[in-house]
Amino acid sequence: DIDFDDRGRQDVIDWVVKKYGKNQVAQIITYGTMAAKMSIKDVSRAEELPLAEANALAKLVPDAPGTSLNKAFEEVSSLREIKEKDQGLQGKVLNLAHTVEGSVRGTGIHAAGVIIAPDDLLEYIPVCTSKDADLLVTQFDGKVVESAGMLKMDFLGLKTLTIIKDAIRLIKKNHGVDIDIDEIPLDDPKTFELYQAGKTVGTFQFESPGMQKYLKELKPTNIEDLIAMNALYRPGPMQFIPNFINRKHGKEEIEYPHKLLEPILNYSNGIMVYQEQIMQTAQILAGYSLGGADILRRAMGKKKIEEMDKQRVIFVEGAKEKNNIPRQTAEEIFGVMEKFASYGFNRSHSAAYSVVAYQTGYLKANYPAEYMAAVMSNSMGTIDKISFFMEECKSSGIKVLGPDVNESSRDFDVNDEGAIRFGMGAIKGSGDAAVDSIIDERSKNGQFKDVWEFVERMDLRKVNKKTFESLAYAGAFDSLGEMHRAQYFYIESGEQSSGIEKLLKHGNAIQAEKMSAQASLFGVGSGMEMPRPRLASCEPWSDLVKLRHEKEVVGFYITGHPLDMFKMEMQNFCVPLARIENHRNQEISVGGSITSVNIREGRRGNQFALFTIEDYETSVNLALFGQAFLENRNMLNIGQFVYIKGKVQERYNQPGQWELSPKSISLLSDVKDKLCKQIKLRIDITKLDMKLATELEELVINHTGKCDMKVEVYSREDNIKLDLLSRKYKVDPSTNLINDIKQLDIDECTVS
User: Fold this and answer.
1) 370 found inside a domain
2) Is 448 among the domain residues?
3) What is the C-alpha to C-alpha distance for residues 198 and 209, in angstroms, rounded to an integer?
4) Distances in whole angstroms, Cα of residue 288 to Cα of each of 292, 293, 321, 551
5) The CATH number of the domain where 619 resides is what?
6) Distance (Å, rounded) from C-alpha 184 to C-alpha 191?
7) What is this structure's pTM?
8) Residue-wise pLDDT tens digits, 145-185
């Protein structure tokens, strides 16, 4: 089982085929079975049940992964009643679906598995061909093929390795530095500062919000801390993270089950984190062989009672014989091992992944722009992730600039000023040929001076009208002089051509003139200089219109976000839409802009609304029924910025599926005045000096308002804190003030 970078994985497979021969290498078949919903749909098709009825039946099955029809019949009474009491076609379909559920429905190919045989594959296993594979495909699936004695290799593609390669390439291009990622120092101060601050978005393994919280508390100082956190941050051992942190900072005494175990437990603060530590304990204390220790570990991990009882006797007697450890002490140590064995994680696995994670942290800490550009280039297919990473860049002080025909590459790049430049390859409708031709022309003949020169120089068969429109919507021509985006699409009164059409007509005429000159006997054209067209003046687009067009051609906003004017409200009073499900059975508030509205009529003539709301990270579909619809329907306007209160509850007849049920909708612009009572700053006393106090006072004076200002000064060393309320000043809790405060050396700024 080995990871390669995404792009190099196929090279490895090709090498294996070349080395061993095509008749000795095969991919592995997978058998897809009929799941609950699929069995209902397939049987419905065979029995000619109308599609609408088939879909309605399938929808009654809960969406939770792995739900069987047996479980669905238990949980959904309406489904059970149809199966047991309906004598018609629906009842027949459910009974037949129950029978065929789990049957093989089709075959596929394992994404990573490759079989290598010592001789011709046909001597060992049955194979077949597939239209989806160049290689032979086994007829045995993964489990069976291994038991048949075949060598099974998993060649996995790991995107992180591709990101590292891309970042190193950008660093070489921009800084002239050659980085051997396997030789970087494992004690780099900047890297550990990044981990200690929890600024791990975009890095490998350590980027979840929960992990960030623990990293801030742990303040890791060496690679062993990261290896341990990687092993502990999973269900089960997570309960020991507070002990691990407290022991590191001396708040809890480090205790060892036995003094002989200190050498193998000191690097994990006395906690048995790894499988290897369980095995070493058995070896050191009770004289187990390596193989015997592994049998013990597996028995403990799988809670095999009979085997554990047998091993307990061996351990206790061995501990007495080898180290004269009393029976009671040995029993207690065995109990500790038993407790941790079910959680223990493979240390070598955690170490390998933590080193790769550290490499990403090193690149982000030392070359943040190049690293984040590589991260975004490798997330092109996931719009939500790109938006999220762009926000991370902005909060880290890295500028993310829109696409530009004079600077952009195909992917995200970093310019001479250290800003990330958007890649033209991400613009819908641009086309690979057009992007490549723009980059090629620019590298051969220099940057474009203005948009007229662009159409005069470019091959307009590749950069056609559709491409030009997409580039203009995305702002790729903004740097070329005084033209603004609206002018490219504006048609002046009395004319029939837009700005883009005039430009393309001019470019084609210039290029035709050049072709004419090359084809003439004397190599000269008409000699007349062709005048450049005048593009009609018009009102520039508003920021919201520009952003809307950016989203049309890229899938997300580039130069800003419609919600930027409400950033303070969104961060302090709204649950991110992506995390709604974390608040099951709770009343919460969310904010965002409405992107679609659909008013419908129910069977009884009652109206209801289905609408979509979008925030910085994602969008969700919501529904308004009954009284809630009547009270809030006037707020349902596309483009409206809204603040929604509601309860997170299970979907009707869909156990395990959660949604927000809205109760009230108000304007997001009203939140600041209605809900904002105080701004609280948290400052370490060691950072508080006259300079910081003066800077704070200047900010407060420039943002006066009605909101209280509170400062909490604390000392971690003395374990004290002091709350100070400003009687002299009240402030306006605007997004600008919050942004300015965050530029100061302040630990935390919250609004409530």
Assistant:
1) no
2) yes
3) 9
4) 6, 6, 12, 63
5) 2.40.50.140
6) 11
7) 0.79
8) 888 888 999 999 999 999 999 999 999 999 999 999 999 99
